[in-house]
Amino acid sequence: MSRPDFQVEIRELNLAYLMLAQQMLRSDRATALYRLGIGEKFADLICDLSAAKLVKLASNQMLMPCFRFDDADLARLMSGEGRDAASASLHAAIIAAGRAAEEAA
């Protein structure tokens, strides 16, 4: 039984992520840094990449985007589980922002 090689899918996902990140950073840097969960140096690198370098970086075998948390309860809140989907999403955003602030300190 052969195992699937996800190289093409990883490259496509990486490229989509990097292009979106570049667009977000150029549009609203502060919000992009928070939403992407990246630091200033990596943001500068992404912004300065040419299209060719973006494609080359995306072709790496490692997945570029990563989950910023490993918390099933927070993921459930973000997906709208709970009493009220709107308040669950707001609650998740507050928790995630608090964790980001803790990590930065």
Automatic annotation (TrEMBL):
<keyword id="KW-1005">Bacterial flagellum biogenesis</keyword>
<keyword id="KW-0804">Transcription</keyword>
<keyword id="KW-0966">Cell projection</keyword>
<comment type="subunit">
    <text>Homodimer; disulfide-linked. Forms a heterohexamer composed of two FlhC and four FlhD subunits. Each FlhC binds a FlhD dimer, forming a heterotrimer, and a hexamer assembles by dimerization of two heterotrimers.</text>
</comment>
<comment type="similarity">
    <text>Belongs to the FlhD family.</text>
</comment>
<dbReference type="Pfam" id="PF05247">
    <property type="entry name" value="FlhD"/>
</dbReference>
<keyword id="KW-0805">Transcription regulation</keyword>
<dbReference type="InterPro" id="IPR036194">
    <property type="entry name" value="FlhD_sf"/>
</dbReference>
<keyword id="KW-0282">Flagellum</keyword>
<comment type="function">
    <text>Functions in complex with FlhC as a master transcriptional regulator that regulates transcription of several flagellar and non-flagellar operons by binding to their promoter region. Activates expression of class 2 flagellar genes, including fliA, which is a flagellum-specific sigma factor that turns on the class 3 genes. Also regulates genes whose products function in a variety of physiological pathways.</text>
</comment>
<keyword id="KW-0010">Activator</keyword>
<keyword id="KW-1015">Disulfide bond</keyword>
<dbReference type="InterPro" id="IPR023559">
    <property type="entry name" value="Flagellar_FlhD"/>
</dbReference>
<keyword id="KW-0963">Cytoplasm</keyword>
<keyword id="KW-0238">DNA-binding</keyword>
<keyword id="KW-0969">Cilium</keyword>
<protein>
    <recommendedName>
        <fullName>Flagellar transcriptional regulator FlhD</fullName>
    </recommendedName>
</protein>
